[in-house]
Specification:
Elements lengths: L7 H13 L4 E7 L2 E7 L5 E9 L4 E8 L8 H20 L1
Antiparallel strand pairs: 1-2, 2-3, 3-4
Length: 95
């Protein structure tokens, strides 16, 4: 996720707003440069999503992974792509 350097605080706030509006998402930990969220499926599976805010690099690194199993049928990739699209749309609206 990319953002302008002067907007690191805004990018963090927008990301937290996107997560709060996401279905089955819970923000477990939110620090100035680190956010950990979990997503729970209807079957009870939990996926961990970690965000590391890199103000100097003008980006937010994202890692999404399933707690169980070896293959998630692309669920985590799709989730990150959806989060990125919503983040970019909301961040653009802020500008």
């Amino acid at each position: 996720l990319a953002f302008k350097p002067a907007n690191a605080a805004t990018a963090r706030r927008v990301l937290l707003d996107v997560l709060a509006a996401s279905e089955n998402a819970t923000v477990e930990r939110a620090e100035p440069r680190f956010i950990h969220a979990t997503f729970r499926s209807t079957l009870g599976f939990v996926d961990d999503v970690t965000f590391i805010i890199q103000p100097q690099a003008e980006r937010i690194d994202v890692k999404s992974s399933s707690r169980l199993g070896y293959y998630d049928f692309g669920v985590n990739r799709k989730r990150v792509e959806q989060l990125r699209a919503r983040f970019n749309a909301q961040l653009s609206a802020q500008a």
